[in-house]
Amino acid sequence: MQGEGQAIGGRAMESMTGRLLVATPVLKDPNFDRTVVMLVAHEAGGALGVVLNRATEVPVSDVLGDWSDLARDPAVLFEGGPVQPDSAICLARLRHPVQPMKGFHRVAGAVGTIDLSVDPEKLRENIGGIRVFAGYSGWGAGQLEREIEEGSWFVLDALPGDAFVDRPDDLWPMVLRRQGGMMAAVAHFPPDVALN
Known about the structure:
Layout: E1 5-8, E2 11-14, E3 20-23, E4 36-43, E5 46-51, E6 55-59, H1 60-63, E7 76-79, E8 83-94, E9 104-108, E10 111-114, E11 127-140, H2 143-149, E12 153-156, H3 171-177, H4 181-186
Parallel strand pairs: 7-11
Antiparallel strand pairs: 1-2, 3-4, 3-12, 4-5, 5-11, 6-7, 8-10, 8-11, 9-10
């Protein structure tokens, strides 16, 4: 559950569910170069998230025709991460975030995951948009925390629209710039410079 402390290795851990992981320039894994990941689950056993800024060329209508009318532009599948790329995770934004809805699991505020087996017609009036991710990003117990300590990720607050931006390629520098100060300067870091 978001905000609940949990014990890991004898120390309390604050859940990062709903927060953004923004790849730092020192992150060497090509799966995550200049990515912005929204954590949809984070607990003692590990973490799960989706990459918000890796659009594919595959239209949502080709894969999930019934859901395509709810997909925000660009209405394409996104690469959620390297784990189980044949599976789908769908993020949705509610129009009325205080109203509970069957098939919707809140991640943060009005944003959450939606059960794709539910009839989209029954949800249409309550959903402000969806984004569909092929695969996800996953970390075992303590793995994400180690990567953060090593400087691979900035952990930042998400804005409600981050998962649904019209220009996902601009999300990495946009999130960094809005932090101000030195972090805003990282947004201008050249992509082809290797750090030792």
